[in-house]
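Input structure tokens:
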């Protein structure tokens, strides 16, 4: 399918609007590392996109995923802790665990149709830090490069990382997708240097351009998705 990350007026704007909810577990005593949260969110999106409930013709999530992908691709990250997290885990979805992060992704819902236990959760307050600088990315695996000059909260960056992973997924053929999935969706999220960003921007790799609903200016390039299979 064609990329929905186009922000001029299109027929997609006339379609019912859906959103993909993600919830990150943030306990006060043990918050996740920022980079791990971004990587876990990206893997969560890929896990849902490849799940049989979302891909099978009669899958229970298939219709919602199709409706979501036919409109603007929106992802919203909210935070939960303790009993809030337990209630979120009771809803249909998939929990993906990283080294320090837990992220639960849910099937798409209408923009104004959030379940009560998710609508109560806060969007703000997802400021996270890395205790130590992340190591260099392994070039054997996909890398989602964050723009060096676009400041984002951790929640916003998690959504953008999910966009980048989704764009890479769409560019792969069935065999490449199968191999990535069977390998456990290895990937890294790193912030590019200005020089790296310029090189990547000219490479023809998938670029996420934000619609500008929150935090960043419309049409801001936020992520470039570098998958080894997409390199010439």
């Amino acid at each position: 399918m064609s990329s929905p990350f186009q922000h001029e007026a299109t027929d997609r704007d006339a379609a019912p609007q859906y959103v993909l909810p993600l919830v990150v577990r943030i306990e006060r005593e043990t918050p996740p590392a920022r980079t791990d949260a971004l990587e876990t969110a990206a893997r969560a999106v890929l896990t849902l996109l490849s799940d049989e409930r979302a891909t099978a013709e009669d899958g229970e999530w298939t219709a919602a995923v199709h409706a979501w992908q036919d409109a603007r691709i929106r992802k919203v990250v909210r935070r939960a802790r303790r009993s809030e997290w337990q209630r979120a885990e009771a809803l249909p979805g998939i929990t993906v665990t990283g080294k320090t992060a837990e992220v639960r992704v849910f099937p798409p819902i209408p923009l104004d149709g959030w379940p009560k236990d998710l609508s109560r959760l806060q969007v703000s307050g997802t400021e996270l830090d890395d205790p130590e600088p992340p190591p260099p990315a392994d070039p054997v695996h996909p890398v989602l490069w964050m723009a060096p000059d676009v400041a984002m909260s951790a929640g916003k960056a998690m959504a953008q990382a999910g966009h980048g992973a989704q764009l890479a997924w769409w560019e792969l053929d069935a065999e490449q997708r199968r191999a990535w999935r069977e390998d456990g969706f290895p990937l890294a999220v790193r912030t590019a240097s200005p020089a790296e960003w310029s090189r990547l921007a000219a490479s023809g790799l998938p670029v996420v351009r934000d619609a500008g609903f929150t935090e960043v200016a419309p049409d801001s390039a936020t992520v470039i998705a570098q998958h080894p299979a997409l390199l010439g």
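The first strand starts at residue 18 and ends at 25. The domain at 17-123+134-230 is CATH 3.40.1490.10 (Bit1).
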